[in-house]
Amino acid sequence: MSYILNIETATKNCSVSIAKDGQTIVCTELADEGYSHAEKLHVFIEEAIKKAGISAHDLKAVGVSQGPGSYTGLRIGVSAAKGLCYALNIPLIAVDTLQTLASQAGVKDGKIVSMLDARRMEVYSAIFNPDLTVERAIQAEIIDENSFQEYTDKLYFVGDCADKCKPVLTRDNLVFLENVKYPSAQAMSKISFDKYQKSDTVDVAYFEPYYLKDFMIAPPKKQ
């Protein structure tokens, strides 16, 4: 049996799960109190391990959300994951935040646009096929009415950008799944286990989150 602890702190959702052979058995998370990671993360980790009926020494690996996302949130999550990996001498698995978010869409057709808010009309986004293979790699972009116009099949949008993007992206083939707002550690379980089985791990000492800080610059508005 392979128990993996998954940590997701890239957004407002402070989320922790314990998975057994790729299946989530415990998930503790909170997204309604803003960025509460510093106060909640270690408490959630302890609670999840206890609820799973295991000890930290039963863990075979730690999966952590690698970004993009909140700078502070990612730092807190990665620091906690590294500390556990050092203490327990177990591998660290980096999980793409936008892939985790896309996996929560649960669609069978079209493409999934996984998107997280940056600032103003800027977003972090990537496009996935329903089997979660990458259709278009992660990038930071400014959303306008012409965004994604090269795609004629149905596009399902997930993430926390619906409020600012829906008034702009109004074509008939664009669907916003507003019930999928934040990535969850529960959805990391299968992804991290697949990586664990392939020994797809990262160096605990040198791993850094994927901040994707190079934004596009919008031209100033004319007065």
Defining key terms:
10 strands; 5-stranded mixed β-sheet; 223 residues; globular; alpha/beta; 24% helix; single chain
Description of the structure:
The chain has about 220 residues and is of the alpha/beta class. The protein is built from 5 helices and 10 strands. The protein has helices at about 35-50, 70-90, 95-105, 160-165, 190-195, and strands spanning about 5-10, 15-20, 25-30, 60-65, 90-95, 110-120, 120-130, 135-140, 155-160, 175. It has a 5-stranded mixed β-sheet, with helices on both faces. The protein has a 5-stranded mixed β-sheet with strand order 8-7-6-9-10, covered by helices on one side. Strand 1 (about 5-10) and strand 2 form a beta hairpin. Helix 1 (about 35-50) packs across helix 2. It is globular, with a radius of gyration of 18 Å. The N and C termini lie far apart (about 65 Å). InterPro entries: ATPase_NBD, Gcp-like_dom, T6A_TsaB. It holds the Pfam family TsaD. This is tRNA (Adenosine(37)-N6)-threonylcarbamoyltransferase complex dimerization subunit type 1 TsaB.
